[in-house]
Amino acid sequence: MASPTPTPTPALPRLLKALIVSSVAVAASHLILSDTLYLSFSAQASAALGAGGGYSSDQAFTSALMNTFLLMPLVLWIGMRITGERKVGAMVLVGTVGWVVAVGNGMGVLDERPGAILPLGSLALVVGVTALASLIRRTRA
Fold it and tell me: Buried (b) or exposed (e) across 48-62, using 16+ Cβ within 10 A?
């Protein structure tokens, strides 16, 4: 006896769930990015003052990017699964690519001073496009 296939969530509730999860993912990724970039600034200042070896600014910068790029898809996928949604691959892909593009375009703002945030317009665009991508569902043929 085959198990019945679950009925898909209607578009509006799924979109609202996706907006919430996307907002949390962007906020968490931005927090990780800004905190680890602060480590990079600290390492640069220490090196300029003649501090010894240790955690270099290049390592901190690479760590900042890798952590935020890995966190975004993880939070999106786990968040949507917790809310009971399936078939979230398109949302995770679009959200991750959108986040990478937003960080790439806004890195100059973050490099200028510690504690800066990415432009709010690009953050809102990532959240909106990611949430809209949640409406894409692949069906079996």
Answer: eeeeeeeeebeebbe
What stretch of H or E contains 104? helix 89-112
pTM: 0.81
Closest CA to 23 of 104, 134, 126, 136: 126
Angle at 81 between CA 127 and CA 69, to 5 degrees: 50
DSSP 8-state symbol, 132: H
Q: Round to whole Å and give the CA distance between 33 and 56.
A: 16
CA distance 128 to 126: 6
Query: Can you tell me which residue has the tokens 């917790």?
Result: 82
Q: Quick one: what percent of the chain has pLDDT higher than 90?
A: 45
| 59, 36 Cβ separation under 8 angstroms | no
Mean pLDDT, the chain, integer: 82
pLDDT for position 2 = 58
pLDDT tens-digit readout, 44-74: 555 566 655 555 666 667 777 788 889 999 9
**CA torsion, ordered 99, 102, 107, 112, to nearest 10 deg:** -120
